[in-house]
Amino acid sequence: MRDLVSKIHITMASTIPLLTPYKMGKINLSHRVVLAPMTRNRSYGNTPQPHAILYYSQRATEGGLLITEATGVSDTAQGYPETPGIWTKDQVEAWKPIVNAVHEKGGIIFCQIWHVGRVSNYEFQPNGEAPLSSTDKGITPGVAGGAWSPPRKLRSDEIPALVNDFRLAARNAIDAGFDGVEIHGANGYIIEQFLKDQVNDRTDEYGGTLENRCRFALEIVEAVANEIGGDRVGIRLSTFANYMECEDSNPEALGLYMANALNKYEILYLHVIEPRMVEADTLYDTPYSTLPMKKAFKGTFISSGGYKRDDAINAVADSKTDLVAFGRLFLANPDLPKRFEIGAGLNKYDRNTFYTQDPKLGYTDYAFLEV
Ligand SMILES: Cc1cc2nc3c(=O)[nH]c(=O)nc-3n(C[C@H](O)[C@H](O)[C@H](O)COP(=O)(O)O)c2cc1C
């Protein structure tokens, strides 16, 4: 009888669009609720820790997609305390049990690979050097609470080495067992520092025209796709946002150019932050939409930013997106897909512990539904 009840329950749940299966390339997802990438600052010494095994496996479901916190591609990639990397052998080894735990629950896990560029300071850089960027212009100190150091503009002949760091990080991610990587091209970090015209002031082939500003991002996509196969590569963009003073004068044109250009590399997904998330915490009314990007891009589309259960259901039902990634709600509700399935109430997130270093508090101690 119990079996029958649970089968009926599953059949009923599949009528909620957000909880219906979806085939993403070769990967069979059983629902469309994705864990958005979230930095949690608990990877001491840039090395993933055993407590992350519990954190990610708590959020894993059979056929559910998780994207990890942003993970550094090199020793110049960091700008925040205790964030993980994937450029050393030890880091690769440390990721393995985390990935295994997610796989044991039937989950799928992609590693978000990043380089912060100018969102950093001397303290995080090897030998206290200047952070690297597309520009010499720094972020106004105090923005987002940071003590940002003035960056150094990369010479054109240094750029291939950075592209190569992303390639190697992707290879390492596959060696660690990840199902794929998400290239972090969003939120004001190095790729955006090249993409957006209010930051990129270069006069070489990486600056100026739209084509030139997108060159760095696309070289990374190409290198990573050649290394591990396009069907294991996603990219995240926040064309419409202005985090970390990273803004573009024509975000629609930039978004559309990237969506079209990405098709050449046949990558798996494009993950876009909703225009309403102009800033990290507040939702705004904007005239923009991600729909033209979704229509242009041939792979899977993931949308994120400010979603709740109902608008996520509608977005999938109206074909505005294929999958929806949830950040804060998933952080605070390890069983979020289940809660959405039965329309249960949600735990509230505690902002004070988003970025603290405790291995448990505000990390793995959010309650599950009692069943
Ligand atoms: C604690 C925290 C850490 C985050 N870290 C990352 C990150 O590492 N990479 C990234 O692309 N976005 C990061 N984000 C942004 C989220 O992925 C997401 O876009 C944002 O929270 C908005 O979605 P939400 O309204 O569902 O929370 C972070 C957000 C939070 C709250």
By DSSP (H or I, 4+ residues per run), the number of helices equals 11
Radius of gyration: 20 Å
- Major sheet: 9 strands, parallel
**Helical content (DSSP H or I, runs of 4+):** 25-40%
Q: Please state the structural category.
A: alpha/beta
**SSE pattern:** HEEEHEEHEEEHEHHEHEHEHEHH
Q: Please tell me the overall pLDDT.
A: 95
Bound molecules: flavin mononucleotide
Tally of extended strands? Answer: 13
Tell me the span between the first and last alpha carbons. 17 Å
In percent, how much strand structure appears in the residues?
5-15%
Topology (SSEs and partners):
Blueprint: H1 2-13, E1 22-24, E2 27-29, E3 33-35, H2 51-59, E4 65-67, E5 71-72, H3 89-104, E6 108-114, E7 132-133, E8 152-153, H4 159-175, E9 180-185, H5 190-195, H6 210-228, E10 233-237, H7 251-262, E11 269-273, H8 291-296, E12 300-304, H9 309-317, E13 323-326, H10 328-332, H11 336-342
Parallel strand pairs: 3-13, 4-6, 5-6, 6-9, 7-8, 9-10, 10-11, 11-12, 12-13
Antiparallel strand pairs: 1-2
Bound molecules: flavin mononucleotide.
Flavin mononucleotide binds next to helix 10.
